């Protein structure tokens, strides 16, 4: 109903203009039978006034159309800018990840035999071999759902399939940001 309101206002301007001209012609003809001078003034003057007054309504409709066009262009430009920022951040993150060694499964590493005077024992320590030196560095990027700037560690990004956005309270897939 309210889609393309500018175009509808412009059509309304044409309709009102047509009705005004038609009413001026009919009134002018009727009045001409009684007073020819007044009838002609109503006939031509009323038609010109109806035509000229439709300019304001038509101009308003055109103004609304142009404003909607500018707003759409602004939204499109903002979306393209946001997509470029996300792509740039995705590229930076992927380049950082690619410089690192590939992940290995978490496992148990034998640290060897410890010989002391009191005992001979074999000890094992559990080490997370998936951990990377830069896993505690923070990486900022926009939420793909609301655009709010988020900050997560590279380890959180790398090890989770989804992350929450505290602003919009929704979860998003990490692959949507970083491919």
Structural class: alpha+beta
Sheet with most strands = 2 strands, antiparallel
Number of strands: 6
Q: How far apart lie the N and C ends?
A: 40 Å
Into which percentage range does the β-strand content fall? 15-25%
The strand line-up of the biggest sheet is 1-2
Order of helices and strands: HHEEEEHEEH
Low-confidence stretches: 101-129
| Morphology | rod-shaped
Radius of gyration based on Cα positions: 37 Å
Average pLDDT metric:
78
Number of helices: 4
Helix fraction bin: 55-70%
Domain count: 2
Identify the notable features of this structure and list them briefly.
179 residues, alpha+beta, 2 domains, 6 strands, rod-shaped
SSE map:
Layout: H1 5-32, H2 36-98, E1 107-115, E2 120-127, E3 138-142, E4 149-153, H3 154-159, E5 162-165, E6 170-173, H4 174-178
What would you say this structure looks like, in words?
There is one protein chain. With 179 residues, the protein is α+β, with helices and mostly antiparallel strands. The chain has two domains: 80 residues; 51 residues, no CATH class. Helices cover 57% and strands 20% of the residues. The chain is built from four helices and six strands; from the N terminus they run H-H-E-E-E-E-H-E-E-H. The protein has a two-stranded antiparallel ribbon with strand order 1-2. It has a two-stranded antiparallel ribbon with strand order 3-4. Strand 5 and strand 6 form a beta hairpin. Helix 1 packs antiparallel against helix 2. It is rod-shaped. It starts with a helix and ends with a helix.
């Amino acid at each position: 109903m309210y889609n393309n309101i500018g175009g509808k206002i412009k059509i309304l301007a044409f309709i009102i203009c047509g009705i005004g001209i038609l009413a001026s012609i009919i009134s002018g003809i009727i009045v001409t039978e009684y007073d020819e001078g007044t009838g002609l003034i109503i006939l031509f003057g009323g038609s010109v006034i109806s035509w000229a007054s439709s300019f304001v309504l038509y101009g308003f409709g055109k103004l609304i159309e142009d404003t909607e066009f500018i707003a759409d262009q602004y939204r499109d430009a903002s979306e393209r800018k946001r997509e470029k920022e996300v792509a740039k951040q995705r590229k930076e993150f992927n380049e950082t990840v690619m410089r690192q060694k590939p992940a290995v499964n978490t496992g148990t590493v034998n640290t060897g035999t410890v010989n002391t005077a009191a005992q001979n024992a074999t000890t094992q320590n559990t080490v997370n071999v998936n951990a990377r030196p830069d896993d505690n560095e923070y990486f900022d990027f926009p939420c793909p759902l609301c655009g709010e700037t988020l900050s997560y560690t590279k380890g959180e990004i790398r090890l989770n399939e989804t992350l929450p956005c505290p602003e919009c309270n929704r979860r998003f897939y990490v692959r949507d940001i970083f491919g």
